[in-house]
Every structure is written in structure tokens, then in C-alpha cells.
Design brief:
The complex is a heterodimer. Chain A is an all-alpha fold. Chain A contains 13 helices and no strands. In chain A, α10 runs antiparallel to α13. The longest helix of chain A has 34 residues. The mean pLDDT of chain A is 88. Chain B is α+β, with helices and mostly antiparallel strands. Chain B folds into two domains: 227 residues, Rossmann fold, CATH 3.40.50.300; 73 residues, RNA polymerase II/Efflux pump adaptor protein, barrel-sandwich hybrid domain (OB fold (Dihydrolipoamide Acetyltransferase, E2P)). Chain B is built from nine helices and 17 strands. A six-stranded mixed sheet of chain B has the order 6-7-8-3-9-10, with helices on both faces. In chain B, strands 13-17-14-15-16 form a five-stranded antiparallel sheet. Chain B is elongated, with a radius of gyration of 24 Å. The mean pLDDT of chain B is 93. The chains are: A mainly alpha, B alpha+beta. Chains A and B meet through α9 and α10 of A and β6, α2 and α4 of B. Chain A: One of its GO terms (cellular component) is plasma membrane.
Amino acid sequence: MLRRKLTLRAVAFMYLLMILVGPLSMIFWRIGKDGVTNAWEALIAHDTIHAFQVTLTIAIIAVPLNTIFGIVVSLAIVRKKFPGKGLVNAFVDLPLALSPVVVGLALFLLYGRTGWFGSWFIAHHIQILFALPAMVLATIFVSVPFVAREVVPTLREIGDDQEQAARTLGATGWQTFWRITLPSIRWAVVYGVVLTTARCLGEFGAVAVVSGSIQGKTETATLRVDEEYQNLNYAGAYGISLVLAAIAILVLITMTVSRPKEGTS
Amino acid sequence: MSISVRNVNKRFGDFVALNDVSVEVATGSLTALLGPSGSGKSTLLRVIAGLETPDSGTVEIAEEDVTGFSPQNRHVGFVFQHYAAFKHMTVHDNVAFGLSIRKRPKEEIRDRVDQLLKLVQLDGLAKRYPSQLSGGQRQRMGLARALAVDPKVLLLDEPFGALDARVRAELREWLRRLHDETHTTTVIVTHDQEEAMEVADEVVVMNRGRVEQVAGPVDLYEHPANEFVMTFVGSVNRLDDAWVRPHDLELTLDPGPGASEAMIERVVHLGFEVRVELVRGEGEPLAVQLTRDAAEQLELQRGQIVYVRPTRATTFS
């Protein structure tokens, strides 16, 4: 029995080591080998800092929008009855199934010169493609599911007894939401926001298609890694990757720490 | 304050939950809605509270037509079977909820909550969270929370259904005393006829979305309106065409006029009373209730042949 347990544990550990920890530690190792100075220079380069700013700007717009949308759509899916509910539920998951490159291409077609929306925006001199708007749209699209995926099961689990009780005690729908529903789902929302943020920071494929990767303009941090890599500046690529990896690890730690222990909520 | 429900209909898909239901609840009374599951009793209570919208019919509370009102404008106190405690709030904040929604001054809220917690015997537990309370304590908190806003009527949906028998009996008695002190018009939903008889002044018996009878506990037991009420309220035997209560059967060792033969299957001692389970001719079961002394005198044995004679029987045409 004990032996089997140990074997299982060893297998799980080896798998994680090979798939996750191995490649991550390679980044550290390569930076050490190719020179910390090179990596540092690439990191403080104007274009790199700008790339991080672009990534952050996108996240600051996309995360709140997707949080609000995620909560609203979860409430609709769990609490309301309406025709086409199953379809909405399925559509929320679509970005998980769809390759980001396809999302990028779809946006490209929609907002391009001959696209449905594209011609209108071009006629009004509003730049969508190869600019921040398209990048934000692409990022929003790929990070839509995470808040709803966390909130929906929690809403189902708590049921609507508490909300009904609040209503009979004189609370309006709005008061019920702020005082009862939101506090009850707060950890699910936090978890969803953290995952959404991580997804926004890491997005590559869809943004690559619609941004045009113009250095110092429409280049995000992940696009910058690719750029440095293509230019054979490996140290630079690893340096930026390291920062992105560090953010991801920080996100993971925040998530683990912030999630309440079993049975306290 | 009075409640009147008039000609209310409610369907859920094909299921008819309420079928032309009209009920009057007098000011200051304690009324029980009694019925088996699916009889519509909970739906009726939820219609009164505004938690369900009737397909047709009207609801009046304190002589005001509230049919179109949302729950928050009806000023009712509602107590849920599974407590519906606000899990992220302390006991104090749970009870204070209705008052803080009404933006009452802090000191007033604190005084009122203290007073209510004393009333439901939860003083000293104000800082606890619902998860740290027992089921009975949670339900008393639910009651205090409902009473905090001085509701026009108090509505309880199987409030003791999730509790164990001893706590249930305790709370039942306590609810009765509370009602005698406050005289808040109260409607309690229950499937337990004993609970309804013990607690209520008036019992509304429901079955398959309809009201079968409205009467006081004594009348309901003594003069049931139909077979359903007769069989649902208290135990009963079918003796040919008549219905006979187990305590309205006389048991003798010798045959007599009007007595029929039966065989003892089981003798169950329930403290003060003894229940004798018999079978008659064609294998029809029959239960007789005796006092312990009467049973001892007869020295009843399993397999023994005895004679039963109804002292009081009811027939419905």
C-alpha cells in the first residue's frame, strides 16, 4: 500500500518536473550561461519597457471588463431562465476550445479593410487593427471564460435561499447583490480575476495576428520575447521570459494564499 | 394582521401546484398549512411572501392588495427550512440585516438585536458565524432575523423539518409561547400533522393543490370533512365501509354483538399506550390503541384470537 502510494507520488512529481519545472529552470540556467548583463540590458531597453507597458495597459482594460461580464453572465446562467441559455453557456467556453490564432484571424477579417466593421472604422479614421483596440479585443476574447468558470459552480452551490431571505427582509435586487451575492462568491471572483490576469499577460497568438508587432508601438511583452528570439538575442529573450514567469509564479502564490481554507467560508 | 388569498392558481409546467385556492388567515392567529409533499402548501406560502407569482388570483395582507408587490415591499417575515443564514455575516449582522437595509440608527439596531437575541435565547452568541451554530440555534437566528423588521405577518416554511425530533419538539413549544407573547399573525407550513395540531389555532389541510378542510385541531380530528382528511390527520382503520380511529375500537376476548374476529400480529409497547396490530378475515390489517393497564388485564399474546367492536365510526358518502 505504502509502496504504491510512493510510486504514484514519484510519477506525479517526475511528470511535473519534466513538463513544468524543467523548462522554467532552463530559463534561469540559460541566463546564467549567456550572461546576466545581456539579459539585463535587453530588459531595460526602451522597447522592452514599452512592451511591458502595452501588456499592462491591455490587462488593465481587459480584466475589469471580463470580471464584470463574467459575474453578469454567471448570474444569468445560474439564476435566470431565458431561451438560448445553453448556447450562452457554451459560448462562454468557446475561447478555451478555439486556437488564439483563429481568434486573431477572425478579428482581422472583421476589422480589416473589407470587413463588416472595418470599412466603417476606416471611413471614420479610427484605427483598430495594428493598434491597441484590436489587441484589447483579442485579449478580451481569449480571457472571457475564466471568471464565469469559477463563479458559476459557486453560485450553484450556494443556491438562492440567502438571496430570497434578503428580498423578504426588504433588500432591493441591487442591495441583495452587493450585500449577499457578491460576498458569497468573492473567492471565486478573486480566483477568476487572477486566472484572467494571467491569461491576459501571457496572450500571444491572437495578439500576434492583429497587432502587426510594431517595435516600440504595438509590441507586447510576449511578442517582445519572440522578437528577441528571432533576432538571435537569446539572453534578452530569456530575461523577458524570466520576468513573465516570475509574474506567473507570483500569481500562483497569491491564489494559493488568498483561497480560504476548507470549511471557513 | 390578516391575510386573504383568493382564487389563486399556480402551475409549474404541467404540474398544478395550486388549484383555485382561497384561504383566510385571521389577525393574530397561528395557522398551519398541512399536507403531504406536493400538496402545494409551500407554494401557497411563497405566493403570500411574493417569492412566487400566481398565474391568477389575489393576495391581500392587512387588507391591502399586494398581488403585484415584490417580496421586499410586502413586509413579511419569512423563515426557511434550511435556515438561509447569511454565511458571511455574524449572528448579530444576520439579525440586523433588515434594519440596516432600512438605514436605522446604529444604537437602535444594536438595542433591537440584543433584545431579539435574548428573546430567541442566543444572547452571548452575537459574534459567532452561522457555521458555528447548531441547527436549532441557526433556526432561532432565522426567526430573530425575520422578527427584527416587525413584519406584518410571519411565514414559516417547514421551519423545523431539518432538525432532530427532540429539538423540533422544543422549538415547536417555544414558537407557540413566542406567538402567545407577540400575537404576530403566523402561518407555518408542515407535513407533520402532530406539529400542526400542537402548534396551530387553525389548520388548513391541503392535498394536490386544493384546500380540503379548514378547521381547529379538535374539529379537524373529530369532524374530518372527507376521507383524505380522516386518513391524513391521525391514524385510522378501514372497517368495511366505515373509518374507525384506533382508540375507538373495543377489544374483548369473547365474541359479542357487532364484534368481528381478528388475530393479534404484534403488540407494541409505547410507554403509556399499547398498540395492538391485528389482521381480520381477508388479511386486512387493523390497529387498536389501548392504555397500558387495559392491555395488561387482557394478557394479549401474539397469534391470539380476539374480538373488536367499533365504539365510534365515521362514514363518508
